[in-house]
Amino acid sequence: MKKLRILSALITALLVISFSAYAAPATIAPGQTGGNGNFIVIQNPPTDKAATFDKSYIISGYGKQGVNVYIYKLENGTYVKTDYSWTIGASGMFFKKINLTKGTNALICYAEDGGVSQSVYLQISYLGTDLTNKINDIRISLDTLK
Amino acid sequence: MKKETIKNIILTLLIVNCIQLTAQIWLDEKLWPEGYDFFEFTAQFPFFDGIVSMFKNVNGDGEISDATLSPNKVVINGGGARIVSYDGTDTFTSALSLVVPCIEEIASGGSVSSDEITVSQWQSMLRAKSIYINLGFETDGKNVGDIFGQPLSDLSKVSNADSIIIYPELMLNCTYVCFKNTDDDYGVRYTLHGHSEQLTEFIKQHTEGQKNDHSFAFELRLDKDSQQDDWGQHLVTFNPDVLLSMDNTSVSDLVVKDVFADTENLSKRADEILGAFGYKPSQIRKTVSQDGVVTYVENGATVRVSPDGTVEYNAIATDKGIKVADTKAQPSQIVNEVLEIAKTVISAADLEDTVILKLRTPLNDTPVFSYTANFTRYFNSLPVIYNKKGGTENYTLTAQFENGYIKSFKMILQGLLVSHEQTAPKPILVTIDSFCETYKESEAITVEDILKCYYVENQGTYKTKWCIKYNGTVAVPE
Question: Sign of the CA dihedral B63, B66, B67, B69?
Fold first, then answer.
């Protein structure tokens, strides 16, 4: 009976550990290595840094069908999992609109499949509307040039 | 019965028949000068109207709208926010009213300069403050001028354009009008003085405070594949100017009603529809099949009218068809002839609707030996696509022209109404994924366009769905 209990406990622990390993973590520490998966390619932004005058940004790309993708955002020194997540479908493509806060938004696109993960670091800066308004007010006309 | 009585009855019947036939001939033709017709005048009075209607062939008031060449959609780019408007909306009309003076200025020549632009320049303008017009079909400069109501002039550099950008350059107080030719990698840009302030104000008015729920495929870089071959799945790419919408606005459902109430009505209306092809019922052999299809067979052609509203005309040989020209004809001439036949069919079918048929085939000025004219019906600003037994039918009206004759004509007639119910279509990515799950071909998928539509079969109510145009065909996934 005792042996049976120990065996049950071991099996339960094994299952818990394996499920834990498959689930995306709640936080990721900066500098943590990104996993050796090859599941997604980010098309937009084209590089790891981008800037926009819009309050939102669409992250797009292609990936392996069935892979789960999560967005993490840097807050108080740690990357915290956000509500943005999706599973890549048969088309292999994804595009997700992310709301931004003013200033630099440090993000991780975390892709996970069968316990293997891949992290893609992105930095998207929201420049706000003040600069846009200033640019829009500049106008050159013949009267100005005279 | 006495012989005299029988003779009197027969004579009376013959006289009444003569009067009836005479009245039919008189009432179908206007005998008096333009604007006056005695029988039309008397028909205004209730008592006489009743008598007149007994003799007159009464057809429906249905007609074809003049929006055949109207653009598919107008996108107002605010440099961040973006709105899309379709034919039938105030924004659409307002945008085009600003575009017309620009086209007028180009068409009239004068101090307008032109140059070539690259794809990159075209895309830069779409990202900035501009108005993008998608025509829905390719056309040349002459027809672009006609679409916007301006006479032909210096639009000769526009050979095969399907879209236009109006870009106000406020700082220089000038406006660029750009046409994208589909047969090369360049566009044509005309530079006009002025118009920029008005256009900029219009764009600001319509995009300020709006969300950015629409992105062109090139902005998301989904027009380039990922170069990843080791995932073992089809990857989808888009044509660069395909507009991807994340807008989930509800749209009214569509109610479809059969055009023919019953077999008797179908038979009667079929006799009227026959006239659109130049035949009279007395001249041609008529049969009605068990499933209710009315077929007319003549030496040179057959006409078929089905209970589901399909009208088909097929000539057995090219020179037995409906003559349009000696051999070649301009596509615009062919389109006009086809629409004239369609107009008669709609009226004869007793449709009361104004049917919006938009051309979906390239239109240019060069006379051709062969041409297929395809039209999609639009209702509530959305295209109506048909789920028929043979597969998805993109076009409400298709006609084939060859060597001077219209050889075949096929049209689907349905009564359409807007429902009080509204539904939001599925997210666009879910639809694309559904499509890919059932895609069995080995050919790569390049999406040419993706748009909301009504996907209909028979009588019933239908919610809006996404229609994917890819590799020259269409699919409407569940």
Answer: positive
